[in-house]
Design a protein that fits this description.
244 residues; alpha/beta; Rossmann fold; Alpha-Beta Plaits; 2 domains; two-stranded parallel sheet; 30% helix; globular; binds flavin mononucleotide
């Protein structure tokens, strides 16, 4: 099976790994360039939710996989607010690539911008459910049951969010270039890692999470505004939804 994952800060990857369990997986990292390829095995696609949609760059890279009638599993991971059209978008994208979506799920991970929301998720309970989902998928594959699933959401999709800021860079930046090398959209120049191209930045927070000196962060007013907006959803524990 191929595991195609876009996970700038690791929450989506943790869910993907819990679903995979001991199933052998060939990894396709959607945070980097993906070569166009015909796929001869089932695909597990796991993407995060950004503003109720999928990150555009991840969708563009996913489109390089050609399904040729293979089975696919569509999974979105969100930060305890809502996933809105993202799961339907992923199902439609995979179908458009020539896959049959035989299972789908929405899981919850720590909110990568507002870390006080869904802190520590996916936790033990989430991972047990993810493993159970993985076993159900494996059973369906073994049975050669190619029946497709129905998921909530759909077209017309909500508009993609416009990101209001880019991370700011503190004076203590050592210009090591780690953020530039790991930025999934190439928004940080290697020769000037204390800058960010606002046209390219999708505010995925990878640079903030990987900086060894904690030099990158969101401007405080933006972070407090978002924290306040998400306060209501922080209180309630959303549960994973499985469609098999
Ligand atoms: C730009 C951006 C937009 C987001 N939008 C949503 C959203 O609409 N709903 C939600 O519940 N979580 C949202 N989140 C939280 C992420 O979906 C969640 O934290 C996810 O686990 C991030 O994946 P990662 O840890 O693999 O980077 C957003 C995060 C970012 C960075």
């Amino acid at each position: 099976m191929i595991q195609a994952v876009f996970s700038p800060t690791g929450g989506t990857q943790a869910v993907a790994d819990a679903i995979a369990g001991s199933m052998p997986m060939q990894k396709v990292d959607l945070c980097g360039e993906v070569e166009a390829q015909a796929v001869g095995v089932p695909v597990l696609a796991v993407l995060p939710v950004y503003g109720g949609r999928l990150p555009e760059i991840a969708v563009e890279r996913l489109r390089h996989l050609k399904g040729q009638g293979q089975a696919a599993v569509a999974v979105v991971v969100y930060g305890n607010r809502a996933y809105e059209d993202a799961l339907a978008e992923l199902k439609n994208e995979l179908t458009g690539c020539g896959f049959r979506v035989i299972a789908a799920a929405a899981f919850i991970a720590e909110h990568s911008i507002v870390r006080s929301v869904a802190t520590g998720r996916p936790d033990t309970e989430d991972k047990l459910l993810a493993a159970e989902f993985g076993r159900a998928v494996a059973a369906k594959l073994v049975a050669q049951d190619m029946s497709e699933v129905t998921v909530p959401g759909g077209e017309p999709y909500r508009d993609r969010p416009v990101m209001p800021v880019v991370p700011l860079v503190l004076e203590n930046c050592g210009a090591c270039g780690k953020c530039a090398r790991l930025c999934p959209v190439g928004a940080i120049p290697l020769n000037a890692p204390n800058t960010t191209d606002a046209e390219k930045c999708i505010l995925c927070m990878r640079c903030v999470s990987v900086c060894p000196r904690r030099s990158r962060l969101l401007p405080t007013p933006v972070l407090s505004g978002l924290t306040q907006r998400l306060q209501a959803v922080a209180a309630e524990r959303k549960l994973p939804q499985l469609f098999v």
